[in-house]
Amino acid sequence: MAAGLSYTSRAHNDKPNTGRHRSRTADVIDHTEFLRCQTGGKSVINYSYTDNPLKLLMWDIWTFLSFSYALPWVVWPPTPSESAPELDELSWAPGNLFCLFVHLVLIVLQIGFLLVLIPICILLPVWMAALCIGGFLGLNWLLVIALNGNSLIYNSDPKYARASDENAHEKWIFINGVAAGEYWMKSNLDRLALTFGRPIEGIHNKTTGIIFDVIECLIQRNFGYATEDVRAAYKVVKDHLYDEKLSKVVFILHSQGGIEGSLVLDWLLQELPQDLLAKLEVYTFGCAANHFNNPHRHKKSQIEEQNSANGLLAASNPVTETALSESPVDMKTSSLSKNSTTAQSNGNGAGAGDGHTIKSHSNTVSLLSDDVPIRTTSDRVIGHIEHYAHTTDFVAIWGVLHLVTNVRASRMIPRFMGYVFSRTSSRGGHQLNQHYLEEMFPLERNAAGQLIGCKDTNKFMESIVEHEKAGTELQDLYDGVDVSLAVMRGRRASDIKPEVGLHGSFRSGDFKNREVRVADLSRLWQYR
């Protein structure tokens, strides 16, 4: 598999740099990378989710320990967001403080339990060991009840987004991540509803405490074990896909929710007709899954994609290829595609066979090529899958980033499907509201100070795509740590200039200085 090219993008006013070689200092700038499915970096992966579960477990434990230095960035930075601090997971709200206190107690108890578990089993009689273990699990259960509540399915507060005739054909579903009890689950739903202006239905991935949640992640990732919420999510998504009144089902996943969502997709791909699956769109944040499946509909399109350097950049079939208000089955011709066709037919293009490309200071990459059909990359069972990840987020590093930035040892190893926006940022933590949505989909207020929805523009989405080298995932991680440390030393995050990068495998050509922003590549952005 050919190694992918990578691209950076920057804010409009920044001068282009002369290469990727950023020094590891506090002056390093924020940046984001875009990866088209699994591109490949410096390392090689010789295992997949279909391998021996014990082998997968061994690798997971090894990578967990290898990336453990990034664990503090699960909650860093703890400072409140600018646009909606009242919805932050780590703000000083009474509900948050209660959740944090209970989780702290659970962490201490669970670590202590794991440390004494083996000695108890060896030194004590069986009945006494069983009594001790049962007593601890009972105490743990009582504590998590205080966090989880009684319901499995929640809905966002109608005051943040009400159902409308305009979006009546859509259904939005969310699965939360690690450690989220009822309070944080509702906070996530309300922030998503505010951001995208639609009611959100939530399938609650109930917490058992952070330590036990991580153990559950290992079991789900490596043994394919479906917990109660996975089975509930499968039923909910399946029922909505069969609903003839709906033409679109949007599935949003965070953290461990990415693992559960990947299991749900596996079941759906096995059972549902392809025309129903075409209604589904999937978007993840800090995804912890070890696989994401999305096969081609036809063998011919798969061969064409492989023969064209793994296909086209997402921008060749950009977010406008399907009208957001219409059924995804009714495919539209993209604006970039139209411009490409017009330029070539009028003789204003770069020349026969050149297609449209992005120009950079040192290299060019093709977004559109005459010898590759536009529908090649859109000929997938699920029309749209996008992953959003911070390069300093431990969960994302352990999950999606580790898997998409490394080369497969064999073409027979399944790929991690979907386009990946990988951002290095001074606020590159793991929390959905406080870190991901605040960085990528910040909110705005009216004159009265009330939250009214997502801002029409932001620094991240307005960045311009520019070329850089492949295999930079480790440097991105170092840069993210440096940026965060710079903020810890008192430097304002706003003083650090943004930069956005992009990874993929493309063909040569000339794009005639066409600017492509992150907003042009992100379909989810079009829903705000």
UniProtKB/TrEMBL annotation:
Coiled-coil portions: none
Region (Disordered): 1-23, 323-358
InterPro entries in the record: AB_hydrolase_fold
Parts of the chain that traverse the membrane: 56-75, 95-117, 124-147
Record field: compositional bias (Polar residues): 1-10, 332-347
Keyword annotations: Membrane, Transmembrane, Transmembrane helix
Protein name: DUF676 domain-containing protein
Taxonomic source organism: Pestalotiopsis fici (strain W106-1 / CGMCC3.15140)
